[in-house]
Design brief:
This protein has about 325 residues and is an alpha/beta fold. The chain has one domain: 3-Layer(aba) Sandwich (Rossmann fold), CATH 3.40.50.1110. The chain has a five-stranded parallel β-sheet, sandwiched between helices. A two-stranded antiparallel ribbon has the order 4-5. The longest helix has 26 residues. The protein is globular. The chain starts with a helix and ends in a 6-residue tail after the last helix. The mean pLDDT is about 95.
Amino acid sequence: MKRVITYFLMVTALLYGLRYLHYKGLLKQTAGYYDKYNTAFLKKNDFNILFLGSSRAEMHYDTRLFDSLTGLNSFNLSLAGANPQIAFAALKIYLQKSKAPKYLIYEVDYHYLKYKSDQIKEFNNYFPYLSEPELRSEFSKVDPRMTHFYFNPYYSFPYTGFKNLSTSLHGWLNIPNQIDSLYYKGYFKESLRPSLLFNHITPYYTFFNVSDRSYLDSIITICKQRNTQITLVSSPIFAGGKVDLKNKEQIIKQLQNIAKRNNIRYYDLSSLPFCKERNLFVDHYHLNHFGATKFTTHFCSLFNNKIATISLK
């Protein structure tokens, strides 16, 4: 029995040691999505404006182009697969160390509001940051396993994945990954996937589930508490969402009412003239980098002429 206990303790110590080295390699990243996470969750920042949302926001708001056209210092805080609950968690964690921005643009994925997610997309990417109490607390509300991943290496290692291990090794060797150069201040330049093909879509109804509606209110509230001017936006969807949604007009009206009740602005930019151009999309909901350039240029005009002219109260 003593030998078994000794063996168990040795293996446990080895696992903790290996996990430390693994996480250290990830945190050493100075480019790519881990540099984005390091900036968002570990550093003290003073950005003028944040973009917040899911992968749509991450791929649609080109921070380099936005900065050049507005003169501001932006950061794209958006996370892949982020519903309003995860977006709220990301914002709350960011504000633990960083100064509240003057502006926040929240991307409302009105086509996806009816789904209540109980998982975090690519959750193993966040393992190195679970030592941050606020992050662990907020992410555990979405996926209770996150607490176990932090304390138990026997539980977390099977979920690590080869890609994650490879990324850590690249960090230790200071060798960039293939997609590292595609990230800039949180924006991901989608230049890898082909343009949208002719895919059949079955139209569906959408609606606000109770949880997403509540967390959207929480995002609005935390912005008002920090004197941050929040604007709700829905960016381009192929064909303006008309081939996907049966009740687009109703959900847009609901979002307009939410904005009106909170004395903020909502802009539905999902049906811009170029939204019928397949060569600008990789699927029905995501622009490629050519589409992102067109959209960001359009959005900067709207921002400079309408959003930035509103006085903060």
